[in-house]
Amino acid sequence: MTLLIGSPTPAASRIRHDRWLPWIPPVVTLAVCVIGIDSASFWRDEAATLDAEARPLPALLRMLTNVDAVHGAYYLLLWPVVHALGSGEFAVQFAVRFPSALAMAAAAYGVGVLGTRLHSRRAGLFAGLVFAALPQVSRYGQEARSYALVVAVTVLASCLLPRALAESRRRWWIGYGCAVGVLGLLNLFALLLLAGHAVFVRYQARSSVGLWLRTAGFGCIPSVPIVALAVNQQDQLSWVTRPDANTGGELAVWLAGSALSAVLASVLIGQYLGRRPGRHTLAWLAVPWLVLPPLVLIFGSELKPVYVQRYPAFCLPALALLIGAGLATVTIAPRVAGLVLVVVLGLPAQNAIRQVGGHGDDIRDAATILAHEARPGDGVLFNCPSCHYPDMPREFAFAYPQVFGLLADVTMAASPSASNTLRGTELERPRLDGVFRVWVLDVDGSAEPDALRGSGLRLVGEWHAGNITVEDYART
After folding, report:
1. Least C-beta-crowded within 10 Å: which of 334, 378, 439, 455?
2. Are strands 468-475 and 425-426 parallel, antiparallel or unpaired?
3. Would you state the pLDDT for residue 277?
């Protein structure tokens, strides 16, 4: 008897293989995102998240009517997580950042599914692994903001759309409409994904264009109240400047992870588009998804500046899909070498993300300086003359309240919670009577703050924490 008892048949082995293979990309992505998740300091945007999450739920809802309505759905989703798990610096970081890591892992699973359905099992596996290796996936998988959730929902919507077009079942269209609705609630700009989906529907299922328009339109309805609030809160984007001639190239490098990574991605995408003319279903989805949303933001910014480099982060899955398809078109040796190159070329950016100042502002080191040098009752003044909001650094206090909470804010008239704002309201003149020492947190460096001139306080010490200067002003 040549067949050993208990040995799996080829069909059984293939079934088991099919079951575990799709889980490799999400497991790898989750592992990559969790490594060093607490290494980087909170930065100003994460501090705004912590500010919002620290409030009672009614106070959070009141704040959203004045400011940050576009992030309201994310704040509400994260609020119970933070209040259940947040206690101590590591616990807070884990509570607010780990959901983003989970979201990126879910997105990796969806990328693998999309690559498999629209191209091949090999393309799905390699697209998911490329997604895990992209530095910006780690960056936003380790950040307490909505970008990772937005990436996951864009992948979900992009998985549901081909299914709905292929099967024409009501449940898939309902699911797609719900995904679009959630996408708009999480990030209005992410609805630009629909521009890419329009191209896919037009060229893959022209007879379904009307049904898609109705479904997408209904999906956008939940975003209408957010749009109404955002129109009244558009001052939040008044710091954004118009893109220049280098913006497109800089975005390509940012998405890929480095200039060499962008070149490699271009070669692999060209390999896919040039050699498999009969297998371009994936391209009709991924190319418009990758290209159109950034173009709309960039050219739309000529009318009203709205482009910020991180806003098109939801295009990362499209890039991974195209690179994965390119790897799938070559033989095993170049395929493995290409994946290794993707990983190696992204390592410098991966390492930079995990430095203490890797997310932007090094608030942790600034807080450490104050913990060693300041005394309870000392004053603190937040100063950034070059910022659109000169008191912007006040948000830092919510990143490390165990330190900043011991200091008296000498320029704050009403707290953020009391005023239903992110930074509170300012006094015309600082409260300096009886204050012996004031610690100034200065972003990007400046001269003596106007608020301290003529106060009798003199600069007696200075420390640097990344882009933050900590200055000690005391009565001598």
Report:
1. 334
2. unpaired
3. 56
SS (H, E, C) the chain: CCCCCCCCCHHHHHHHHHHHHHHHHHHHHHHHHHCCCCCCCCCHHHHHHHHHHCCCHHHHHHHHCCCCHHHHHHHHHHHHHHHHHCCCHHHHHHHHHHHHHHHHHHHHHHHHHHHHHHCCHHHHHHHHHHHHHCHHHHHHHCCCCCHHHHHHHHHHHHHHHHHHHHHCCHHHHHHHHHHHHHHHHHCHHHHHHHHHHHHHHHHHCHHHHHHHHHHHHHHHHHHHHHHHHHHHCHHHHCCCCCCCCCHHHHHHHHHHCCHHHHHHHHHHHHHHHHHCCCCCHHHHHHHHHHHHHHHHHHHHCCCCCCCCCCHHHHHHHHHHHHHHHHHHCCCHHHHHHHHHHHHHHHHHHHHHHCCCCCCCCCHHHHHHHHHHHCCCCCEEEEECCCCCCCCHHHHHHHCCHHHHCCCEECCEEECHHHHCCCCCEECCCCCCCCCCEEEEEEECCCCCCHHHCCCCEEEEEEEEECCEEEEEEEEC
Tokens of 440: 């100034």
Whether the pLDDT of residue 1 is over 50: the answer is no
Average pLDDT for 170-187? 97
* Six-digit token string for 341: 């190159």
Mean pLDDT of the chain: 92
* pLDDT cut 70: percent of the chain above it: 94
- Specify the pLDDT at position 91: 73
Q: What's the pLDDT band for 279 if we cut at 50, 70, 90?
A: low
Q: Confidence band (pLDDT; 50, 70, 90) for 225?
A: very high
Answer whether 135's CB lies under 8 Å from 64's CB: no
Please provide the distance, in angstroms rounded to a whole number, between the alpha carbons at the two ends of the chain: 97
Amino acid symbol at 381: L
Distance, in Å, from the CA atom of 397 to the CA atom of 114, rounded to the nearest integer, reads 42
Question: pTM of the prediction?
Answer: 0.94
